[in-house]
Amino acid sequence: MNRLPALTSKGFLPTGTHVCSAQEFIERFCLVNEKRKQIRKAFVDILDFSNSRNAVCVLIGGSYVTDKEDPHDLDVVIVLQKKEHIPSKPERLVLDGRRTDIMFCSIDEPIIASSFVRLLSYARYGHEVGVVQISLNHPDKPWETTHEPDDETFEVIKRAYFNRHLVDLNEAPGVLVTIHGLMSHADWNASLIPVANSQGWIVAPYIYGFTTPDILLNKGKRKEAVDLFRDWIFSIKEDYCQNGERISVIAHSFGTYLIGAYLNGFEEFPPVNFNTIILTGSILNEKYDWESCAGFKVARVRNEIAPNDQWVKWMPKKPAEWLGLDPLFGQAGTEGFKSKSEILTQVSNKIFDHNNVIKKDVITSMWMPFLNSNKHAGDEEDYKRIMQKIKSENL
């Protein structure tokens, strides 16, 4: 029985996630003409790889699930059982001239998985479309692997094709800015930069030097630090964001204050806005208003909560009562943010303290999937803002 609905008048699937078997997908989208048949072998190998890794399902988007006779992109998200099963590097291939973005997520990180679904749910210019979910253990037609894959990660997808070659599309996912904390030379950049670079990110570490904690009590030094960051981040935008690239941030400790103070300093659209911000060891106030930043200052925020963070615990609960302290200071790194916002994701892990979060396991299995799945979040928020403006003008 067919489970996929008919395409809309514009040639897209209706909005929503549509579940089907692998066989139905192949019959519906891979066999309708000779041009589509050329990619069938590649698609079968993708399914074989997914099945061999005990994947839950495969999500499909892009022009391949439209009525285009000669689609040029096939967006694939393989949903695995556990985050530790995720390969360290997503693959981007050209198969017979068709771009193929292959990404990974896992069901034990449901927020990230949902972000991937959202990513696939928007066509170019923000048009909402449907997504196909191929269940590998479909009750009617379970997928059977046609050949066993090599042990090398994802090698099964890259072998035995005519006119197939790996390519650099020169489409960086974005610019990734890292901001370190106090009394640090940001040694953790040595772990983060190779991982992010291997996935196409332009990495720009903000190194402001070894700084002692007395800056927390010195208003003048804090202002100077924020001003220096303001100048630097604008130059990064001018130098590296001329082709639509968006800036994302990973900030630690005092770095969270710098990004928070920068955003808080602008009442209107700031000179630099951000796609995604990841905070760890945050010393921002728990009442920081992320909802007021939604869309026009930042599109997505992830806050790592570490209840055992020994340094954040020393931050005063009521900084306004302490002479010289900025009211923006607080214990969001141990207590979490209390204000609600759709753009805010918070994750708590008791294994973390102030200095052991930024390691390769977290970078690879948590942060990079979050950054990659939200790489178009800024575009989505722009579209929402435009539609809200149009709607309000028509009232």
Query: Helices and strands: which structural class?
Result: alpha/beta
The quaternary organization reads as single chain
CATH architecture of the largest domain: 3-Layer(aba) Sandwich
CATH class of the largest domain: Alpha Beta
Proportion of helical residues: 25-40%
Shape: elongated
Sheet with the most strands, sense and barrel status: 7 strands, mixed
Q: How many individual β-strands?
A: 13
List unreliable stretches of 5+ residues: 92-98, 147-170
Q: At the fourth CATH level, what is the homologous superfamily of the largest domain?
A: Alpha/Beta hydrolase fold, catalytic domain
| End-to-end C-alpha gap | 45 Å
Give the topology string: H per helix, E per strand.
EHHHEEEEHEEEHEHEHEEHEHH
**CATH-defined topology of the largest domain:** Rossmann fold
Backbone CA Rg: 23 Å
Count of discrete domains: 2
Into which percentage range does the β-strand content fall?
15-25%
Mean pLDDT: 82
**Structure annotation, total helices:** 10
The largest beta-sheet arranges its strands as 1-6-2-3-5-4-7
Pfam family, one: DUF6932
InterPro entries: AB_hydrolase_fold, DUF6932
